[in-house]
Amino acid sequence: MNRTRIAQLAPGIALCAVLSALAVGLQMLEEHWTGKPYLEALVIAILLGTVLRTAWTPGEHFAHGIGFSARTLLEVAVMLLGASISFQAVMQAGPALLVGIAAVVAVAICASYGLCRFVGLPKRMAVLVACGNSICGNSAIAAVAPVIGAKPEDIASSIAFTAILGVIVVLGLPLLVPMLGLSEIQYGVLAGLTVYAVPQVLAATLPVGLVSTQIGTLVKLVRVLMLGPVVLGLSLAVGRSSRGLSLSRLVPWFIVGFLLLAALRSAGLIPDMILGAILPIATALTIISMAALGLGVDLKVLARVGGRVTLAVTLSLIVLIAISLGLIRLLGLA
C-alpha cells in the first residue's frame, strides 16, 4: 500500500477508531455501573456512528477510509475469528446433540427467512436477520454481510434490533426455568441455542447454575461453528447466481482464512500467546468496522424499516425458542 493510498484511508479510519474507542469506554462505564455489558461496544459503536452521521455528513476525504473500514477491516476480523473455533470442543458434545444443533440452525434460518419475507423485508436483510437470529447475532450478521453484498443500512438495522432483543432474551430467558420446569442441563441447551453472543450466554446461565453455564457455553460454541458452513454455502449460492464461477468469488479469501485458522486451532498449531493476541485484534477491527457501518446509515431509511425488522426478529426468536425446546424434548435431555 503506497503513501497516497494510506493518506486517502487515514482520515476515515481514524474517525472510525475514535468512535470505537469511545464505544469501548462507554461499555466499561456500563459494566462499572450495572455489572454487565448489556450493550456491547460493537453495538455502541454502530449507534455512535449512526448518531454522528445523522448530525453531520463526513466530507469526501473521510469516504475512502470509512469504506475500507466497513469492508476490508470487517473481512479481516471475520477471518481472525476462525482462531477462536476448536473442533475438539465440538466432538465432546456427542453426535446426537451435534446433529440436533445443526438441524436447529438450518430449520431456524429457513423459518426466519420465510418470516422476514412474509413481513416484507428485502431479500438481503431477510438473510441477515435469519443468520443473526439463528447462529450468533451480530457476528453472524457481520460475517454474512460482505458475502451477500448487504447495504450498510440493512446491516445497521439488523444489528441494532438483534442487539436490543438480545438484551431482552438475557433478562427474560431465565424466567422459563420455573415456568417450564427446566433442569439445569435443559436450560443450558436452551440458552446455548437461543442467546446470540457467548458473553450473553454466560449472563443468561450463571444465575441458574454452573451446569447450565458449562452446557450453554459448549452448545453456543458448536452453534457458532455453524457460521463457517452457512457463510460458505451462501458464498457458493451468490457466486453461482450472479458472480460467475471464479473460485475467488465463489469462496471469498476471508472465508478460506476463517476455515484455515479454525483447522490450525483444532490441530493445536496456534500457541496460546498468539491466540491471546489474535482475538483482541479481531474484536477491535470488528468494532471499528461497525462504527464505519454506522457512519453510512441514513436514519430515515432505518425508520422506514424499523417496525418490520422488529416484528421479523421477534417472530424469528419465538420460532427459534420453540424449535430448541422441541430438540430438548426429542433428545430426552433430563
From TrEMBL:
Predominant subcellular localization, coarse grouping: membrane
Subcellular localization: Cell membrane
One Pfam family per UniProt: Cons_hypoth698
Transmembrane segments: 39-56, 68-90, 96-115, 127-149, 155-177, 189-209, 221-238, 250-268, 274-297, 309-331
One annotated Gene Ontology cellular component of this protein: plasma membrane
Membrane topology: Multi-pass membrane protein
Matches recorded under InterPro entries: UPF0324_pro
Alphabetically ordered keywords of this record: Cell membrane, Membrane, Transmembrane, Transmembrane helix
Keyword Ribonucleoprotein: no
Family annotation (PANTHER family): INNER MEMBRANE PROTEIN YEIH-RELATED, UPF0324 INNER MEMBRANE PROTEIN YEIH
Family membership: Belongs to the UPF0324 family.
Annotated protein name in UniProt: Putative sulfate exporter family transporter
Organism name: Microvirga brassicacearum
